Amino acid sequence: MALAAISLAPLASHANDDNQRLRKAVDAAIKPIMAKYDIPGMAVAVTVQGHARFYNYGLASRQSKVVVNKNTLFELGSVSKTFTATLAAYAQRQGKLSLGDHPSHYLPELKGSRIDEATLLQLGTYTAGGLPLQLPEWVNTDADLTQYFQQWQPDAPPGTQRGYSNPSLGLLGRATAKALGQDFPAAMEGITLKQLGLKHSYVKVPQNAMASYAWGHNQEGKQVRVNPNPLDAETYGIKASAADLIRYVQLNIDPSQLPEPMRQAVEDTHLAYFQVGPMGQGLGWEQYPYPGTLPQLLAGNSEGMSRQLNPAEAIPQPQQPVLPTLFNKTGSTGGFGAYVAFVPAKQIGIAILANKGYPIPARVEAAYEILAVAASEVAP
Predict the structure, then answer these.
(1) Among 284, 279, 269, which Cα is nearest to 236's?
(2) How many domains does the structure of the chain reveal?
(3) Among 106, 164, 236, 288, which one carries the catalytic annotation?
(4) What are phi and psi of 79, to 5 degrees?
(5) CATH number reported for the structural domain that contains residue 97 in this entry
(6) Has residue 301 been placed in a domain?
(7) What pTM does this model have?
(8) Distance between CA atoms of 348 and 326, rounded to whole angstroms?
(9) Residue 164 a catalytic site member
(10) Does a structural domain hold residue 7?
(11) Of the N and C termini of the chain, which has fewer Cβ atoms inside 10 Å?
(12) Tens digit of pLDDT for each residue in 39-67?
């Protein structure tokens, strides 16, 4: 199937030609979630064959009463990991990094440590040997971080078990920045976000964009934003609007208009390196056969998958998907929740942003329902 060209010009909301079936589907999926989980505001963007539509709900801040729009900045949480993976793939395409290298090639202070037995690819696919979901509370500085990795002991041989982990992919981000000779925020903003044309996405929100930055809301209803952490930028640090995030989705659906080697880097993040139950684990993105079933998608996004070690079977020769494939990623911070999914073969995708955390199954179910309607709108 030939993919429709995607303009890199600013996206329009298509408010006047909005498909009513799609709007009804979004309303039916999102409004009950907001009511059930007391979410102040949500922004949803759906793309169908290169056309983006936006659906905005509620408030960016209950205190200021500013309403959500397609340019409101939300914290993406771990959706940021897909951007980090893209930067690593870009560095490899430039010949400045190899995913087959070990961490100490770029971070010599880790030479001789157990973490150095893993490759950068294994760090990027959470198969380094059992790194935890989060860093210990005592890790507050870069010196603490180095000490932690020097002392860390694996639970499994590299490449055999998948354990979802901020420290794992975060270390890949650190090594990538070293390979590029920049600090990570500068590399992310100056390379990845710039070349993707994401003009309203940031690691560090500048002062002139703060008015667009939503406030997150924790479970007690207090307004919060993300806390600093030695690996926050690499693993959950990006703030973006629904307009920028759906552009990112469109460019993953069809990277052909991107400059080289960014086009190749985006495509490289679509390779699955390990099979983990129903899910193919790539760099950043997780993938499933499409259309598949909702139970498969829920299983791949379950707590058992995110909080436990699961057997990982290496895929000998990773290739671009031949059959229709759904890619997805969830993300959360203390006051925000995000979900992104897309199907390149159908040219459909969705980004759901909220300024309060809520259960991942609810995000997956909502996206699944909306994408089913979006798929029915695809021209044969």
Answers:
(1) 284
(2) 1
(3) 164
(4) -60, -25
(5) 3.40.710.10
(6) yes
(7) 0.95
(8) 10
(9) yes
(10) no
(11) C
(12) 999 999 999 999 999 999 999 999 999 99
